């Protein structure tokens, strides 16, 4: 099975190489020990800041609706990825790494940028290892799959019933020009296990925190805090009137 996949993967990479530039701008790669000599295999690639989708079987895993998207914008640049289903087809615990990378980010402006990352998902069957399940990187050298320049650090998820969430990790990234972003999701699933995930890496100007709830207007807060007092006043008045 693995020899067949390896041969198919080599042919796929060769065909892909004839139709696309040698240096992909945006790609998703998969990695499992014992598959393709343990090296990562690019399963889909595209142009700058596009959308990527892939379905298929890689080694011991079947991956359904694996997607990625990237955005280069003045207020928020990001690198996103998700799946609807990852299945370990073997009877033993196996590990699949999902690597998503995009080069040529130029925004937001400024030399100091804030990076925030996180991952969440659910487990349908079996068990999923939560320790160091996700890590996000930024590279000032604009290297595809660059992981040596900056990272928000390994993130461990906390389970809550069938769901799990890493929460947010944050850091400050110094860049000199165009830069790249990379995320690595590590799915260690028990035999026959089924799970899914959604992950993000957000880049903003310093001090900007995306996706935060807005505080209630001061007038609304005062009105809400005054409701119990008004209710008590009405009750006292009714008592005084003999109601």
Overall description:
It is a single chain. This protein is α+β, with helices and mostly antiparallel strands and 243 residues long. It has two domains: 2-212, no CATH class; 213-243. Helices cover 17% and strands 46% of the residues. It has helices at 2-19, 218-240; strands spanning 26-31, 41-46, 51-58, 61-71, 77-88, 94-105, 112-125, 134-139, 150-151, 158-160, 163-165, 169-174, 179-189, 194-204. Residues 1-22 and 213-241 have low confidence and may be disordered.
Q: Mean pLDDT, rounded to whole units?
A: 84
Could you say how many structural domains there are in total?
2
* Share of residues in strands: over 45%
What is the ordering of alpha helices and beta strands?
HEEEEEEEEEEEEEEH
Number of helical segments with 4 or more residues: 2
Please give the share of residues in helix.
10-25%
Number of strands: 14
* Main sheet properties: 8 strands, antiparallel
Terminal Cα separation, in Å?
A: 84 Å
Q: Which blocks of ≥5 consecutive residues have pLDDT under 50? A: 1-22, 213-241
Shape: globular
* Structural class by SSE content: alpha+beta
Radius of gyration: 24 Å
């Amino acid at each position: 099975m693995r020899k067949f996949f390896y041969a198919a993967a080599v042919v796929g990479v060769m065909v892909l190489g004839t139709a696309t530039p040698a240096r992909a701008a945006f790609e998703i790669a998969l990695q499992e020990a014992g598959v393709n000599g343990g090296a990562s295999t690019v399963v889909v690639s595209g142009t700058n800041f596009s959308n990527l989708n892939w379905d298929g079987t890689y080694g011991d895993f079947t991956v359904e609706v694996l997607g990625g998207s990237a955005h280069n914008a003045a207020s928020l640049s990001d690198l996103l990825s998700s799946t609807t289903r990852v299945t370990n087809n073997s009877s033993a615990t196996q590990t699949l790494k999902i690597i998503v990378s995009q080069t040529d980010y130029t925004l937001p402006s400024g030399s100091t940028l804030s990076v925030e990352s996180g991952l969440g998902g659910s487990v349908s069957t079996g068990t999923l290892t939560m320790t160091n399940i996700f890590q996000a990187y930024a590279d000032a050298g604009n290297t595809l799959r660059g992981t040596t320049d900056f990272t928000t650090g390994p993130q461990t998820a906390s389970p809550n019933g069938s769901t799990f969430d890493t929460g947010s990790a944050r850091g400050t990234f110094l860049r000199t020009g165009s830069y790249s972003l990379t995320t690595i999701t590590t799915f260690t699933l028990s035999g026959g296990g089924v799970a899914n995930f959604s992950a993000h890496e957000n880049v903003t100007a310093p001090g900007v925190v995306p996706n935060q709830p807005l505080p209630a207007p001061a007038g609304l807060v005062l009105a809400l805090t005054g409701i119990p007092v008004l209710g008590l006043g009405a009750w006292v008045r009714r008592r005084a009137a003999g109601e």
